[in-house]
Design brief:
The protein has 146 residues and is α+β, with helices and mostly antiparallel strands. The chain is built from 3 helices and 8 strands; from the N terminus they run E-H-H-E-E-E-E-E-H-E-E. It has a 6-stranded mixed β-sheet with strand order 1-4-5-6-7-8, with helices on both faces. Strands 2-3 form a two-stranded antiparallel ribbon. The two termini are 28 Å apart.
């Protein structure tokens, strides 16, 4: 498996991204956190840009990181993390989605894709002046210090 990360997703991957983000079969596990996130930040939506698709969350300026498995056919994301800066010292991860094959009990479970996505956000946050912690919004008690 050859994972790469990008802030872009091509327009032709819309169906796969919608499936991953909105119809993920494992989302029931974090239902309460999703509801809290929707109430706090608004609904995520896909927007077409000149560079491809992006994910917006309510009226917030969210950042998105997509994971791709280069060994897989087609340029479709197998994971996504959406995060935003909620204060000068804090970044909140407001959504994480992993393709079922890459989830903990999936065919490619050894990857630890959800953890890898969070680690990538930690790397990004460490480069932002003033950010001291990352809050995993689905589980507010989970705080990662940068």
């Amino acid at each position: 498996m050859n994972l790469v990360f990008s802030s872009k997703v091509p327009s032709e991957s819309r169906d796969a991204l919608e499936e991953l983000l909105f119809f993920n079969p494992r989302q029931h596990r974090v239902r309460e956190g999703i509801i809290n996130s929707l109430e706090q930040f608004g609904h995520p939506r896909l927007e077409q840009t000149a560079a491809g698709l992006s994910i917006c969350v309510g009226n917030h300026e969210a950042q998105t990181l997509f994971a791709y498995d280069q060994d897989r056919r087609g340029k479709v994301p197998v994971g996504v993390v959406v995060f935003l800066r909620t204060s000068p010292a804090e970044v909140a991860i407001v959504h994480v989605a992993v393709h079922p094959a890459y989830a903990l009990r999936g065919q490619k479970a050894g990857v630890g894709l959800g953890v890898a996505l969070v680690e990538k956000v930690k790397e990004i946050a460490a480069r932002i002046v003033g950010v001291q912690r990352i809050v995993f919004f689905y589980r507010r008690h989970v705080v990662i210090h940068v």
